[in-house]
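Data deposition worksheet. Section B asks for the primary sequence of the deposited chain exactly as it was used as input, without tags or linkers unless they were present during the calculation. Section C holds the resulting structure in token form. Section D is free text for depositor observations; keep each observation to a single sentence. Incomplete worksheets are returned to the depositor.
Section A, Depositor: J.P.
Section B:
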Amino acid sequence: MPIRRNKDQKKESLIDFYNRDEWTGPFEISARKMLDVINWLNTNFKQTELIGTTSHQRLVIHASENDDSEWSIIISNSGLKEYYIEYKVPKAQSPWENAWIHGTAKDFNEIKQYILIAMKESGNWKGTNEFENLTE
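Section C:
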């Protein structure tokens, strides 16, 4: 299933959000780059549940629609080539409460790899066939 917008933000789809006319200049570039990420997710995760929330232009990916579902992965772009990614370290591996890993991907190909790493390390998509096939 394509990445779905969180039920609390469902008045417009993620694609509609990033296609808004109000995004101009670097915000428009950033929005287009985020659409590339969404299209890649939709192409590669047709059966895996991915829930998206937007916070400003950041895309927050959750593993489920549950109200208590924590933010798992955060992806953003500043209108340059680079993407920024963060993921929450699982409690069992966390050196302190609510630890996050932050990184910068230099381009679209690298962010795709970083997303897969974040999905793996967060532990929220373990055992899903599409994820397992992409990370073999």
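Section D:
The longest strand covers residues 83-88.
The chain is about 35% helix and 20% strand.
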